[in-house]
Amino acid sequence: MSLVARKRLAKEVKELAQTSLSDGTLSLSPDSDSDNLENVLIDIRIVGNPLYDDSVTYRISYKPDSEYPFTAPAVTFVGPEIPMHPHIYSNGHICLNILYDGWSPVQTMTSVALSLQSMILQNTVLERPPGDEQYCSRAPANPRDSRWVFHDDNC
Known about the structure:
Elements: H1 3-19, E1 26-28, E2 40-45, E3 57-63, E4 74-78, H2 109-121, H3 132-138
Antiparallel strand pairs: 1-2, 2-3, 3-4
């Protein structure tokens, strides 16, 4: 990982730790190793949407590459709890334009986590994307290697 990427990520991790919401809805995961900037774990909870249990914590894996922040990180939901959402596949891959073609270097891990939290908070149906089972059976490990077709503002 480049020095630019390391410095930027260290700053973002510090920012995320400092801006963690006091209600616990957004925080740096206690399982995240602060020395490992190649896979930062972020925990979010969804409070205020009756479709989701507000006691459940969803974990996001944020994996930047050597070109970060000029290329998007690989962002997925990991762990036993993958939120049910029309743009989140059961393998944790997320179809959201800002994680792919819509990426901008001004985005940070905090802004990405808040965008995901907001996307889920605004959800009105508990369902997976069309073709979830088929996609997951042949999806690459890195979601950036998928060929996404964005048919609305998110996916």
